[in-house]
Amino acid sequence: MLGLTAMTIIRLRSLFAVVMLFSIYSLLTASLFMVLDAVDVAFTEAAVGAGISTMLMLGTLMITGYREKRPAHSPILPLIVVVLTGAVLVWGTLDMPHFGSPDQPVHQHVAPRYIDDSPKEVGIPNMVTSVLASYRGYDTMGETIVVFAALIGVLSLIGIKKYTNKEPGRTEKPPESILQVAAKLLIPFILLFALYVQFHGDFGPGGGFQAGVIFAAGIILYALTFSLKDAMHLAPPKVVKVIAAFGVLLYGGTGIVSMLKGGTFLNYSVLAHDPIHGQHYGILLVELGVGLTVASVMMLIFYAFVSRGEAD
Amino acid sequence: MMEMHLPVLQVIVPLLSAAICFLLGRGKLPWMFATLVSWVTFAISILIAIQVSDGSTLQYELGGWEPPWGISYNVDQLNALVLVIVSGIAAVVFPYALRSVEREIAPEQHGLFYTAMLLCFAGLLGITITGDAFNVFVLLEISSLSTYTLISLGKDRRALTSSFQYLIMGTIGATFILIGIGLIYALTGTLNMADLAERIPQIESSRTLQAAFAFIVVGFGLKLAMFPLHLWLPNAYAFAPSVVSAFLAATATKVAVYALLRFLFDVYDVNFTYEAMQVQYLLIPLATVAILFASIVAIFQNDVKRMLAYSSVAQIGYMLLGIGLVNATGITATLLHLFNHALMKGALFLALGAVCYRIGRTSIQQMAGLGQQMPWTMAAFVVGGLSIIGVPLTAGFVSKWYLILGTLENGWWPLTAAILIASLLAVIYIWRVVEVAYFRERPEGAPDVKEAPLSLLLPTWVLAAANIYFGVQTDFTVSFAKGAAASLLGGAP
């Protein structure tokens, strides 16, 4: 099914359908991850791939239009390159360690310690969160900054158009449509769910990335069913920008505090008297940093795309 | 206590400063802040270089987890040298940026511009310093994303398409690197470079390992503009803002060359790279073609910025040729050229940025007669040009000298001839600019041009002077390059 979807995406010329199929593709991938027992990854794929990136691509379509232009050059050379790369990949992976076999090197070397010792060393049940936020916490900080860098790119290229209208707030829309009522019912639960995912990441699947995306999705739903102006009134771009930077600084700041307390950068064990408590505080803080940055970056990127689309 | 934290401060100072810079808004404040940060970072890199100058290595465990479970930073002479050159160039380019950026970029974007510069800077430092294969990829993404942003800020609208072109090529490169790292991880179960180096020899016959090698070489090949994967580079450098061209030309490709070296010799080892994969038979022909072909193309360019960009492709060819020579002298030459080329291209692009500041464009006809009107700027250009050609007493001579020694050591005299021919080609393309600038009159009706302001001249001349200094005083560069080459060829650090 994945292959079929991908083929259709390549053949289709209607960009709107392509975006929808992308979303389906992501959902299929997410189910695949689910089957592989990678719950956290599946969750992220569903939230980011199927959810927010579809929204952003639709926002882009508002600016660019729905039809794809005929490509100007012949597809022969790219085709050869792609086939060659695929062939190398298949050839190269034929003698890979068998899938699912317990003697795979992956299960022999570094991972056993994560599995055996992380409950003792880090003290939280979700090992994925332990690896993400603590053992390899520096990579996660890097990823957060990648998201931040994407924001810088969008802001400098498109920017957010300011509304100069005097009357802020609600647009004059007579009786609330069904969509608006439904959205009003849904949004509180979406936001609540985001908070749950945020703070429950230590115990179940979830964490800052997913929570941030879901939170942003709640606000974006508001913008879609009401109007962008309403959403901007609720969450002004200026404030959201500050929060985006603050999330990064919260993550980095946690690292710096642990340096001042005599550990190395991002060593949470020194944050409290008991190393396990320290790890708890540290993970809570950095996940909050991730959540804040991701949520605000997603909202700002959406604002940028849509305000540009409305202006044209 | 601070000494212990130097390796991590090297990266997080600019990285977190980027978030602060974003909050500073408009005006001169972001520039002042970013400049200060670049100087602090340069100071840190010098302190690190002093610590490792005796051949020792520093290790820093992030998060307090020892590798391979956590991520570690490892500094030896090799990356200390690259750290010094990247942060040194930044420390020169940031003060220069104020006037040049005022002229080329809209005021409301200055804050974003300096934020992106700091992110790019921090990303490049992070790739250089880390001892973890996946961490390389994360920092590579930070530097790449901000690079695309920076290029797209060029005032010519074609900057957008060239940035997009680079985005596609760069993303393919990064994906290839990620596939390579993923395959290695599947085979070994570890991401730490030193740990990988221990485990890879045991599985050397694995085809997956060879496929991973191919993906990593092609991935970094795209990033460092290895011929024929260089097509993104001339447009990117030609249309980016002057400051960005100077910064990227002097640092970005160098860091990619470094990362390639690290993977070829430290993650994989010398035997695998040269004997099992025979990488020299790939690099030597490609590098030789790059040197000759790109130099010839450079001669026919109308835009001086684009000419320098093609010259960069040729210079990268020299660095790859050094790797292909399979001897310590060759690797030393690669490292020396990595350092020296940053100095010369930095000086040339900054001088050109000063020209652009005064006359608004960089096509060669517009530069007629500038030798009299902007004597200091053009003199700096000439110094950088002499260094590109490889005239004795400039930095360029030192690295070419080692490269020629390396070819002669193997008795591969056709390569020696190719290097000499390419140097003559460099004479031609630099001379074209000199001839126009010094021996032609200003065209009729062209407005009078004054010398560039001091805040542009001073940084340009710092780099031009560095070209002469490191051409005469070679202790620092040669000893670091030799030490690093020895440790690369001697196996894991």
SSE blueprint:
The complex is a heterodimer of chains A (312) and B (493).
Chain A: H1 2-11, H2 15-35, H3 39-64, H4 76-93, H5 105-108, H6 111-121, H7 127-135, H8 137-157, H9 178-199, H10 208-225, H11 228-234, H12 237-260, H13 275-311
Helix pairs in contact in A: 1-2, 2-3, 3-10, 3-13, 6-7, 7-8, 7-13, 8-12, 8-13, 9-10, 10-11, 10-13, 12-13
Chain B: H1 2-23, H2 29-52, E1 58-61, E2 72-75, H3 77-104, H4 110-129, H5 133-152, H6 158-188, H7 193-199, H8 207-223, H9 232-239, H10 242-267, H11 270-276, H12 279-299, H13 304-324, H14 328-359, H15 370-373, H16 375-389, H17 395-410, H18 413-439, H19 454-472, H20 475-489
Antiparallel strand pairs in B: 1-2
Helix pairs in contact in B: 1-2, 1-4, 2-3, 2-4, 3-4, 3-10, 3-14, 3-19, 3-20, 4-5, 4-10, 5-6, 5-10, 6-8, 6-9, 8-10, 9-10, 9-13, 10-13, 10-14, 12-13, 12-18, 13-14, 13-18, 14-16, 14-17, 14-19, 14-20, 16-18, 16-19, 17-18, 17-19
Protein name (chain B): Cation:proton antiporter
Domain NADH:quinone oxidoreductase/Mrp antiporter transmembrane (chain B): 132-425
Transmembrane segments (chain B): 6-24, 31-52, 78-99, 111-130, 166-188, 208-226, 238-261, 281-300, 307-326, 338-357, 378-399, 411-431, 452-472
How would you describe the overall organization of this protein?
The complex is a heterodimer of chains A (312) and B (493). Chain A has helices at residues 2-11, 15-35, 39-64, 76-93, 105-108, 111-121, 127-135, 137-157, 178-199, 208-225, 228-234, 237-260, 275-311. The mean pLDDT of chain A is 83. Chain A is built from 13 helices and no strands. Helix content of chain A is 73%, strand content 0%. In chain A, helix 3 (39-64) runs parallel beside helix 10. With 493 residues, chain B is mainly alpha-helical. Chain B is 77% helix and 2% strand. Chain B has a two-stranded antiparallel sheet with strand order 1-2. Chain B is globular and about 70 Å long. At the A-B interface, helix 4, helix 5, helix 6, helix 8 and helix 12 of A face helix 1, helix 4, helix 5, helix 6 and helix 8 of B. Chain B: The chain crosses the membrane at residues 6-24, 31-52, 78-99, 111-130, 166-188, 208-226, 238-261, 281-300, 307-326, 338-357, 378-399, 411-431, 452-472.
